[in-house]
Amino acid sequence: MPVRLLNGTEIARALRQEVALGVKELHQRHGVTPGLAAILTGDNTASATYVRNKERACQEAGVLTQTFHLPQETTERELCALVERLNQDNRLHGILVQLPLPPHLDPQRVIAALSPEKDVDALHPVNSGLLAQGRPRFVPCTPAGIQHLLLRSGYSPEWKHVVVCGRSDIVGKPLALLLMQKAPGANATVTVCHTGTRDLGSITRQADILVAAMGSPGAITADMVKEGAVVIDVGMNRVEDAFNKRGYRLVGDVAFEEVSRKAEAITPVPGGVGPMTVAMLVRNTLMAAQHSVGQA
Ligand code: GUN
Questions:
Q1: Atom number in ligand 1 closest to CA 142
Q2: Regarding predicted confidence, which is higher, 276 or 295?
Q3: Which of 50, 83, 97 has the most ligand 1 atoms within 8 A of CB, as the residue to mutate?
Q4: How far does the centroid of ligand 1 lie from the alpha carbon of residue 170, in Å?
């Protein structure tokens, strides 16, 4: 059987259309238009592209956006002062601090300065805590995107063994917490692997659903995958490519060709998890605006 490609671009488009309806309804009922502030610090070109994609997706759904591009040498005090000013601005319902920050800035302290009610990336300790307790306010965008992608493709994680490779605060950890919840669309048995895992392949081969989120190009090879598994590739690695006009191409954490011959379904890179992450940010911003008027 040929592998099934899980088309995140298409599913994300449908999701954004649903969000756009919610935005209209919120405006009709309450006269409120959701607003998102995005803060881009420094000159990371990949981050600039992500922020542009997020802005465009918001605008298409009717969400207002305001982007703050701060110089590389911005101090923590200046960045936190901006965050605090945006916390107070009631036209803005969501604030996104694009990561990574320049190395002299501590992301945990900056994230902690966000109002948890506006933390649409769900990275503030209050929001991580709520997710850990199984009563999330917002779910981090990539984990939420992966759950929606699975559910809308007919691969519910319920009763399945999900193996997550990667323990980042932004993907691996919150995804494990999300999918192990006692809740519809979750209820999975989750194993988290990381750089300290011995004999990684012996664990990944047990996965019904295998999630690669380690940031290592092509690290998951066919011998590490069970026949018929569903493979979700979160990797977004730029590798040099002299034949590409940009000088690089994007590859995931999965060796796509060889794993495709073994898996039942797989997400492409690009066009898999990436667009779902963006759609979830738009959705979380709508939810933040709905909360602000006591709806939802
Ligand atoms: N950097 C990579 N992914 C993300 C994300 O989902 N949110 C933020 N804020 N930064 C990121």
A1: 6
A2: 276
A3: 50
A4: 7
Q: How far is the CA of 99 from the centre of ligand 1 (A)?
A: 5
Q: What is the pLDDT of residue 160?
A: 98
Model confidence over 103-115: pLDDT tens digits? Answer: 999 999 999 999 9
If one residue of 40, 67, 99 were mutated to test the ligand 1 pocket, choosing by the most ligand atoms within 8 A of its CB, it would be 99
Helices 8-30 and 273-292 pack at an angle, to 10 degrees, of 10
284 lines ligand 1 (CB under 6 A): no
- Checking if the pLDDT of 296 tops 80, the result is no
pLDDT at 125 exceeding the cut of 90: yes
Domains and CATH numbers, the chain: 31-115 (3.40.50.10860), 141-274 (3.40.50.720)
> Which ligand 1 atom sits nearest the alpha carbon of residue 96?
9
Indicate if the alpha-carbon torsion angle 177, 179, 183, 185 is positive or negative: positive
Check pocket membership of 97 for ligand 1, CB cut-off 6 A: yes
State if residue 119 touches ligand 1 by the CB under 6 angstroms criterion. no
pLDDT of residue 1: 83
Give the residue numbers annotated as catalytic, written as ranges.
54, 98, 121
